[in-house]
Amino acid sequence: MKITARYFPVLLLASLLSFGLSANSSARDTVTPERAGIASMLEEVTPAVVNISVQGTAAAPDNPLMNDPFFRRFFEAPSQPQTRPVQAAGSGVIIDADNGYVLTNHHVVNNADDIQITLSDKRQVPATLIGSDAATDIALLQIKADNLVAVPMADSETLHVGDYVAAIGNPFGLGQTVTTGIVSALGRHTGINGDGYEDFIQTDASINPGNSGGALVDFNGSLVGINSSIISPAGGNVGIGFAVPINMAMAVVNQLIEFGEIRRGLLGVRITDLTPDVVEALDLQVSVGAVVSSVEPGSPAEKGGIEAGDIIVAVDGTAIVDASDLRNTIGLTRAGSEVEIGLIRENRRLNYDITIGNAPGVAGSAAGEKADATSVLDGAVLGNIPSGHEAYGKVDGVLVMDVAQGSRAFRNGLEAGDIITAVNRKPVVNRTELMGLLEDNTGTVAMNVRRGDQQLFLIMR
Questions:
Q1: Full-prediction pTM beyond 0.70?
Q2: DSSP letter, residue 54
Q3: Which of 334, 358, 382 is the endpoint of a domain?
């Protein structure tokens, strides 16, 4: 066919359009758009976050009819405390892949008889409770598995309000979920933990039931906190969640690994916040710190030279903001450590080296441990008195958490709920001391035991 001149412009336009479409198609096939967001970071971090399933027992609610004098006669009082099975779910974070250490909340694994962990690759492995501290709501588990991934640690002291964070956990048992937000506040004291130690990171990243024990990470993929609790009128997320700072959590973990319990520090002072009116009245040159109201006789503070009226402004060079800050700092310092206390007295800066004492009724309760099979307490599960117990802070001793029917401890007259206060008239403060005394006394042992309001003297054979 002969191509005339009048058809040439049409053919040229068609050729150009065909070339343009081919070029655009080729560009789409070869150019990959850059992925926005934090997906690449999460790919590194999420394998370190696990799901936790717990089965255990808890005290059964009392029969209300037993409180009525008329109906009580129709019921026989139980000889042993009544219990009921419980199930719980939460989250955890692998912090040491070599040793299989998993960090979570105390309330997730409290009263657990069996703990199962589901890894991100769907493997299920049993977990052992190394120790738990109700006062900080931190617990440490250990698992045995290959190819574990641990999350890197951040320094939670470097956090600022407004920093971006992501919460990773298992809300409502749905499976691993990621939410994002910012650090809304730091150093929060909510009272959620009762008389515990609180220095919460507050975040608006969505945290719901089941997220407890999960990871709060910065956008570099480093662990800054352990998600712990929420404030929620209706039981769901309203943008007010709290995480235990990782620095506080690791202070607990290090003691649980070394001792299996928390050997909480004691300074021996009563303190209040330094308020503006006190600053003005005393014409002080400082505006933050903790005012010493009184010093306990014979305490480390008295022996170290601290006086009533002093204003504690630093511990080991780290500034103390208020009374809660000092309480947290000393409480998380292991007993026996030497610290430098910086204080203001009559507008003069003074420094004292003080050896921290051991808080009575150790606040950190390690996991209950069965007595040795050769011990007079064989069949008993023993633990330190937890902070929520009515005897905490009032009685020094070791709590009998459970006694197996027909066991040696049972035959020797021991009951669940008893508190062992002395062995052969030697006082015991915690489980470690009790175990040590029992190792030295393999024969007949005399024990002082508190049972409710009664003081018992039991001969254990």
A1: no
A2: E
A3: 358
